[in-house]
Structure formats: C-alpha cells, structure tokens
Amino acid sequence: MEIALPIVNLGTILPQLIVVTFAVAALLIDAFYRNVLSVFIVSFLGLLLALCAVYSQYGVAVPYEESMVAINGYTVFFNAIFILVAAATMFISLGYVDLTGVDGGKYYPLILLATLGMMLLVSSRDLLLMFLAIELLSVSSYVLVASQQERWVSNEAAIKYMLTGAFASAFLLFGIALVYGATGAIDFVTIGRKLSGGQALLHVQVGIAMMLVGLGFKVAMVPFHMWAPDVYEGAPTPISGFLSAGSKVAVFALLLRLFTDPFSVPHVDWVSALWWISVLSMTVGNVSALLQTNVKRMLAYSSIAHVGYMLVAVVVLGERAMEAALLYMAVYATTGLAAFGCVAYLSKGSEERVNMQDYTALAYSYPIQSAVLSVCLLSLAGIPLTAGFIGKFYLFGAAVNSGFIGLAIIGVLNSAVSLYYYLGLLLRMYAMPEGAAEVVMSHPMAGRLVLAVLGITILVLGVYPSPLLGVIKEVVAAIASPV
Amino acid sequence: MVEGRQVFDLLWLVPAIPLFGAIFNCLLGARAGNLIVSIVGCGSIGLAFALSVCIFRAFLDLPPEDRMIEFCVFQWIAAGNFLAPIDLLLDPLSMAMITMVSGVSFLIHVYSVGYMEKDKCFARYFFYLNLFVFFMLTLVLAGNFLVLYIGWEGVGLCSYLLISFWYEKRTAAAAGLKAFVVTRFGDFFFALGIMLVFVQFGTIHFHSVFEDPAKVIDSRMAMWIALLIFAGAVGKSAQIPLHTWLPDAMEAPTPVSALIHAATMVTAGVYLVARCYPIFELSPVSLQIVGITGLLTAFISATVALVHTDIKRILAYSTVSQLGHMFLALGVGAPAAAVFHLLTHAFAKALLFLGSGAVIHALHDEMDIRNMGGLRQYIPATFYTFTIGALAMSGIPGLAGFFSKDAILHATFVNGGFLMWALIVITASMTGFYTFRIIFMAFFGEKRWDVHIHHPGTVMVIPLVLLALLAAVGGYMGVPHVLGGGDRISNFLAPNFGNPEVHATAEPSNKGVALAAEDETAVVESEEAAESEKVLEGVTAETLAEGEGHAPAGSPEMLLMLVSAVMAFSGVGLAYFFYVTPEGREVPAMLSDKFGAVYNILTNAWYFDKVYKAVFIDTYMLMSEFFWKAVDTAVIDHAVRGVAGSLLGGGSIISSLQLGLVRWYATVMVLGAIIIILYI
Q1: Which residues does residue B90 pair with via DSSP β-bridges, in sequence order?
Q2: What is the average per-residue pLDDT within B334-343?
Q3: How far is it, in rounded angstroms, from Cα B312 to Cα B442?
Q4: A239 falls within a domain
Q5: Exposed, middle or buried by CB within 10 Å (0-12, 13-18, 19+), for B646?
Q6: Average pLDDT for residues B309-333, to the nearest whole number?
C-alpha cells in the first residue's frame, strides 16, 4: 500500500515551528536545570525569532487552496500581534511570578504554546486544523489559569474554565460535524463554494449556529460569557490580560473570517441574530461592570462589552468594517493587556490589589502604573486622543455608513454608561491621600518599562494612527480581492 | 534650492521643540532644579527662534510667487471625505508671525528666569509658558481651520492657566475664569464659523478655501462666515464688547502679561482676520463692522487708560486700544498695515510690560503709579528702555510705532473718511498722554515709596535692551514710499493681501517713484535678513539717506503724517505739563472735580463690567436658581436617578444570575444555543 506523504513546506510554517521548538527547548531546560531566568530568556528569544520570521512573511502570499497553513496579510498582521502580546505578557509576569509562587519553568513555555495555538488558528484553512488550534490554545490556557497552585480561587477558576470549555468544545465539534456532513468538505474554500451553490440546508444552519456557540464561548459573548468574570478574577493577573488580549482576539479574528468568507452566503439569516448578540454583550457587560467592586471582575465585564463592540463589525461586514475591526482588535489587545498588567504591577507584596477601595490615592505611590492604567481606562472608554477613541470612531463610522444607525447609537450610549465605572476607578486613584502613604513596593523595571511603552503606544495611536491604519488598509485590500 | 527645501522640511520642528520643552518641564521639571528648567525652557524657544530665522533666510531666497509652502505633518483622521490632516502653511504672513512670536517669546522667557527666580512653582511656570509657545506657533502655522482651532483653544487654555498661576489668590483665580469664559463666548461663534466654512466649501483647508471664495459663496454668505469668525477674534483680541477680561488678566505674572496679553495671543484675532481676509473682502459690510469695532475699541479704551492708576491696567487698556487700531486697519482695507502694527506693537508693548515688571519688582509688587515716583535714578536701565518703548508706542517719528500707526491713519483717511480719521488721531494723542503719564509719575518727581529697591538682574535687563532696540528700529521694515522707504513689509506680505493698493491710489502721480523704490527694495529685500538688527539698521540708514533725496514734499500723506506727529507730541507735552511742571500739577485734580461725571465714567471703564454683571451675571444667577430648584432637582435629578437606578437594578439582576455554579453556566449556554438555533 502506498502512503502519500504530505508535502511539508517548512518556510510557510516557519514562525510556528520556531515557537514550538523554543517552547520544547524551554521545557527541557526547566526539566534539567530548573532555572527560571534561562527559561524566560529562551522563551523570549523564541518569540523574538518568530517575530522576525513573521516579518519576513510580510508581502508573501500562500493562498488557502495550496496549503493547510496559509499566509496572507491577515495572518501576518495577527501573528505579529499575538507574538507581541505574548512577549509583553512575559515581561509583565516577571515580578509577579516570583511573588505569587507560580512555577515559572512551566509558565513561560505554556504561554508560547498558547501563542502557537493562536497563530495556527488565524492561519488555518480548514475546520480540522481550526479545532486543533482552538484546543491547543484552550488546554494551555486552562493550565495557565491554574498556575498559582496554592491559590484556591486560581484552581477553582481553572476547573470552571475547563468544564465549561469542554462543554463549548463539544458544541463546536458537533457544529463542525454537521457542516461537514452537509457539505462533505472541511476546508473553508470548498465549504464556501458548496454553500453558495445550493440553498441553505437546515442542518448547515444548525451546524453554523453550534459553531457560533462554541466560538462565542471562547470570545465570551453573551450569553456564553458567564465563565469570564470568574476566570479573569481567579487567573494570575497577567494571564487574565493574556486571555483578553490574545486568546479573545485570536478567536474573534477567526470568527470575523468565517462570517466574511465561507459562511457569508447564508449570512442574511445571521445579521439580526448577531445584532442581538452584539447589543446584549455590550449592555450586559457594561451594566454588570457598574456594580463590581473587584477591579479584575470589572475589567472582565468590560472585556465582554468590548466583544459586543467588535461584533458590530461582524454585523456590518464589508471592507470598512473589516478595517475597523482590525484596528479595534489591535487597539483592544494593547489596552486590555496594559490594563491587566497595571493591576498586576500594583500588587501589595504577594497579595493582589483587586479591591476598588485599595486604589484610593494610588497615583501618589505608583505614578507610572497609575498613569498607564488611567490611559488604558480612558482608551477603553473611548475618550479622544487615545487609541480607543480612534477604534470606536472607525467602528461606529462603518456601522453608520452601512445603515446600522441603531446599532451605532446603542454602542455610543453603552460607551457613555461605561464611563461611570472607568472614570470611577480613575478618580479614586487620583483622590487626595488620607492618612499615611503606604510603603511602596518596588516592581521590576523591565515590566514597568513595557507598561509605559504600552501606555505611550495607546496615546500615540490616538494622535497619530495613520501608520497602523495604512498597514490595515493594505491588509484588508489584499484579502478583499477574491481568493 | 535643494538646501533651502531641506530647511523648510524642518518647519514642523518650530512648534515641536517648544512642545518638547513643555513635556520635559512638566514631567521632570520639579526634580530637575531651576537651572535645568531655565535652560530647557529658554533653550527650546531659542532653538525654535534660530530655526525660524534660518527658515526666514531661505524663504527670502524664494521668488515671491513661490512663497507659499504647505507641509502635511500627518493625517490625523480620515473618514470618508472628511479629512483632518495636521498641516502647516508657510507663507509671508505666517513667516512674519512665527519669527516675531518665537523671538519675542525667547526674550520674555529669558526675562522670566530673573523675574520668577524666587517662585516655588518655577517649573510649572515654564511648563505653561513653553506649552503656550507651542500652541501659539501651531496657531500661526496652521494650514487648515482645525489645526488653527487647536492652537486657538490651546493658547486660551494656557492663558487661563497663567492668569490663575497664583491660584491661591482669589482674584487671580477669578480673573482666569473670567478670561476663559469671556473668550469662550467668542470661540463658540468661531467654531460655528468653521462649521459653516466646511458646509459651504466642503473643506477646511486654507488654500482651497481662500483661493477663490467668490466662486463658492456670495457676499451674503461671506458676511455670515466673516462675522462668525470675527466674533472669535473679538473675544481673543479683547475688542468691545468682549474686552473686559483683558484688564483683569493682569493678575498674571508680568512676563505673562507681556507675552500673552500684549505681544502674541491677543493678536491672534488680528492674525485670524488677516488670514481669512479673502472672505472678508467679499463682504464690505463685514469689513465695516470690523473697522468700526476697532475704532470704538481704540477710542474707548484709550480714554479709560487716561485715568487708571494701576500701571499694568493702563498698559492693558493701551493694548486693547492698539488692537483696536489693528482691527481698524483691517476694516479699512489695509491688512498689511494691521500686521505691520501688530509686529511693532509686539515689540513696544512687550518692552513696556517687561519694564513695568521691573518697576513692580523693584518696588516689591507695588502697582499703583501714585505710589511711585523718582525711580529714574534708581533703575536707570529700566527707565531708558521704558522710555524708548513709550516713545515707540506714542508714535513719535523715527521709532517703530510711528510708521505702523501712520500707515493705519493714512489708510483710514483714504478709505474711512475724515470722521474716523479724526477720532483715531485724537486716540493717538491720548496714547502719547497716558504712556507718558506713567513715565512722569513713576520715574520723575519726588519718591513716594519707602522700600529697599530690588535691582533688576542682568537676565532681566538684557531682554529689555534688545526689545528696546527692536522697538526703536523695527519700524524700518515698513518705511512708506513717501519718506523714500520701500514699504518692505507690504511688499513682503503682498502674496497674502495683494499689492498695497492704498498707497497706489493715494499718490498716482508718484507712481514712478514708488515703482522705482519697489525695484530697489526688491534687491535689498533679497539680501536682508530682517531679523538681525544690525543688518536692518544698516539698510534702513541707507534707505533713509536716499529717502531724503526724493521725498515728494507736500503730498497729502506727508501732511497727514505731520498732523499725527504733532498730535502725538501734544499728548506727551500735555502729560509733561500735568505731571511735571509745577503749574500743571493742580490741573488733573481740578479737571476731575469739574467733570466728575465724565471722570466717573472713565474710572469705571464705561461701566462695561457693571452692566455685564447686572445684565448677564445677575440674570444668569436668577435663571440658575430657577433651573436648579424647579428643573434640575425636581425633574432632571429624578430622571437621572431613575436611569441610574434602573441600570444598577439591571446590573444587580444580571449579577444575581451569576451564581458561580458551573452547572448553571452550562444551563445558560444550552438555553442560549437553543434560542439561537430556534431564531434562525
């Protein structure tokens, strides 16, 4: 019997290969030397090399028909974001890991593996690889959430995340099976062609709906969001940032692609359903955040609201919405990560500072973290001169342009509601100190530097977004031309 | 040429360097110490000035028709057909402005180092001051209305911050607020004007709007746009009826008054109207309104300055009056004269304010001129420089103010009629009177104070001397043809405003001479670096010497000039009689007794503040009370509480669904999935 060996084009998957190689290498180093610093350095080197490899793919095009792992502007753009997010997460974890008793030797390689999952996810051509990538991402995330073994909430969060996650994966897999059954194909291009040919069958629709449930769980859209506050609260804070900036953006990028390309034909049915999900996510996220007294839970609900905003782009679709979505995701990845990073860097010794009341007058003890956190909060609220404003401006602009005026109005009203809790925290930080100032903890310089860079990036993008916009326009124009 | 281009590419650095200084002083100033703060503060402005001069030199090498350089720094927002680029425009008008702004700012920064050395908020002061310069340069370099508006609001903000710089003082905080609110009143209309421009033209880019506005709008629409824009200028440049904030703004540290409330920010309104002149030209009505507003302001505030006793307030009213002159010039079709007066006034008034600052400093914050006297012997450098400034301000022939004021008077006579001319000539004489009243009361006579004199340090004297030089010779950039000069400033600004028509119509018989003079100056112009005083001096000596040769004696312009000179001298002379000669000493008191009613009107500044308080503030308070009790508490609060309550209630309902139980989460997921599947 002849077995057809798959043709592997190593150049195409070079970034992914680098990441997996260095992840394994770092794990081996941990096994033999148990030196956290060298694990960190090796992992970081891997990310750095992978970034170079991704950069070298800029402008290269390997279409979906030719390879299981595609290369185009879209994948390059997102892979670069994931690698940067992962690298920033590692730096933000630097002091945190030592303080809170996380086993750094497993922690850093796991971040790399989760990143690999994200990278494969956006590059995947078919349902199979997509599912594998999501599972790789999810399993790594479960373990990362549980990495504070001595903290009870961390373990609880991981168990909850894993149980509900498995449930969602079942939905996703069932949906995949139905779609496969209806079309007889697993690759997106063929599925798209089949679906556009005949009329939409009921089990295709049910299959897509179930996939939406599975993916919706991963991005925490309402009503599949319930896990998010618990998990974000329980996870080590840098990982909360990583989940909201990395894994959420990765799955959302896939969602956007699925509903733009292969599923766009029976799309007509989806508009109103996604419209409601978008509105619900915004509203439930913002309204729930109003009441939170725990900063991490507040940011978790805020991230649910932001999924609602991003979904506006999936409802609207089209080139401008695509540009707006890419911009928004890039901005959100920066802001979400930086916000959680600041929370991590405001810890009191081994204890996290999560209670809103503990933020009173912090700006006088931790000027850098407070300033960056303020910038993040303003950006999340969409105040002009921050990146968040530009993101919302383009997103709602695209919605209005395509006639979704109601959606834009609801979005803007939601932003107004969100101001209450964002500014509440901000005001608290800059309130006049009462009583003696607390002893200031010193946090590692490198992490603070990364936070400052993220904060400045948010401001610069708010004033001078044209370079990023230029790249995004190029990317969207390249993939908008028929594949 | 290639090299020149490279210099122009650095244009963005002119505002960027002061911004860098501001950021540095804001973030690190408090830790860095006064020395570094002053080096960064003054150095950044000095660099910006040096760069402006380099650009000026390259600019003069360009042929006049090429002197319009646009420079897009970056695209800020591009959404559909709405573009908001940050672009800069370098043309003769903005070139002249940035050189003046950065130069005067630099001198005032240096002076501030001495003036503020004892202040505990030294770094904050320089942060605001640098930020101000950044916004001011952005304002004058703007290539579209949006960027101009950013600068416009930015300078307003800095003005507010600096007026209330000593915020522990109640009056200072109130004055800052007043300035902010009153100017904001004008800004509101200005913003409307910009929107109207966008609606009408579909763009806010200066070049496209001003290229040929007659194609797009008729004179009626031009009038609306012009009047809205002018309303903004009225607020910022403290013209009647929005002038009341400027005298109060004297609560600011004196160098700030010199920089913001005399030389630069308050002239932004003049600059704005000059910049938008193509639109104003389309509507004669709007030009008339501009001219009459300017004239009234010039006259009324000059009368108030006659009787005030606070040295800074006299100068403030004088500034308002001089700004009125500039608007008058704009109104009578002489924008080049307005800009010329703007420049010479900037030098002279900055000098006077800095001089008054030195006096106040010397006498331990004494501002009442009745408590000064005899200071001539104690602070001679201040005395001499102040006198030069006063002479220039009063329009004494030979000094800067004379030439620019003469250009305005002449244009008023030709285009505005005899009555306007007469009123402005009387104002000119009052200018001489009140400026020299300060000198005679503060520097002459017996000393009426009893403190240990603070001598101004070298860092304070040097800027005074340099400004005195500028105030003395600055006028030679615009010596009119009739005196044999080249009126270089009008020629330089010709790309902006067209050729100086006033002079041409006034003396058709001398056209040949004028043309010849123009040719000459074109040669001179290319050689000159108008900023370096030495060169200026040399050239002007030349042109003056030539001028004597073929000045057409007895022309009407000469006669007008003579009259205005005589009036200026008479004002000075009267001040001398009233405040120095023994016979005259009794006259002021006698006059104020005899004309008590007039005197009261003047000391109360024509009751503007009191009327405003009665009409606006008290009514507003009454309305506020009504809305507070009847509308806000009763209606709005309940509505807001209702919305907030329902949101929070909704939040608690949703949160109560968040049980923290995994099986409940799974149930919700299944329910959601069922709904979605059923929905489609």
Answers
A1: B69
A2: 87
A3: 12
A4: yes
A5: exposed
A6: 88
Q: Is residue A172 part of a domain?
A: yes
If you measure CA to CA, which chain A residue comes closest to B650? A287
CA distances from B46 to B260, B386, B530 (A): 17, 24, 17
What are the tens digits of pLDDT across the range B528-582? 433 344 444 444 444 444 444 344 445 677 888 888 888 888 888 888 888 877 7
Radius of gyration of chain A, Cα coordinates, nearest whole angstrom: 22
State the pLDDT at residue A8. 67
Q: What is the pLDDT of residue A264?
A: 66
The continuous run of DSSP H or E covering B76 comes out as strand B69-79
What is the tally of structural domains in chain A? 1
Indicate whether A2 belongs to any domain.
no
List all residues of chain A from 199 to 228 with a beta carbon under 8 Å from chain B: 205-206, 209-210, 212-213, 217, 223-224, 226-227
Bond preceding residue A223 cis, omega within 30 of 0: yes
Between B403 and B487, the higher pLDDT residue: B403
Q: Does A270 touch chain B (CB under 8 A)?
A: yes
Q: How far apart are CA B45 and CA B48, in angstroms?
A: 5
Question: Of B87, B646, B677, which to mutate for an interface test with A (greatest number of A Cβ within 10 Å)?
Answer: B677
Amino acid B532: pLDDT: 40
Cα Rg, chain B, nearest whole Å: 28
State which residue of chain A sits closest to B657, comparing Cα positions. A226
SS3 B580: coil
Q: How far is B75 from chain A (nearest CA, A)?
A: 6
**Closest C-alpha among B573, B567, B291 to residue B419:** B291
Dmax (CA) for chain A in angstroms is: 82
Using a CB–CB cutoff of 8 Å, tell me whether B658 touches chain A. Answer: yes
All residue ranges of chain A with pLDDT < 70 are: 1-8, 197-200, 262, 264-269, 435-438, 480-483
User: Please, are residues B98 and B141 in contact by the beta-carbon 8 Å criterion?
Assistant: yes
Alpha helices in B332-372 (DSSP H): 335-362
| A160 CB within 8 Å of a chain B CB | yes
Structural domain for A57, as ranges: 14-480
What is the pLDDT, as a whole number, of residue B78? 67
- Which of A221, A283, A290 to mutate against chain B (most B CBs within 10 Å)? A290
Residue B520 or B307, more confident:
B307
Cα–Cα dist B163/B184, whole Å: 15
pLDDT of B96 reads 87
Give the number of C-alpha atoms closer than 13 A to the C-alpha of residue A434, restricted to the C-beta side: 6
Q: Is the Cβ–Cβ distance between B355 and B255 less than 8 Å?
A: no
State how far the Cα of B15 lies from the Cα of B23, in Å rounded to an integer: 13
Asked if residues B309 and B369 have their Cβ atoms less than 8 Å apart, the reply is yes
pLDDT score for A451? 92
Residue B90 has which token pair?
């370098």
Whether residue A7 is contained in a domain is answered as no
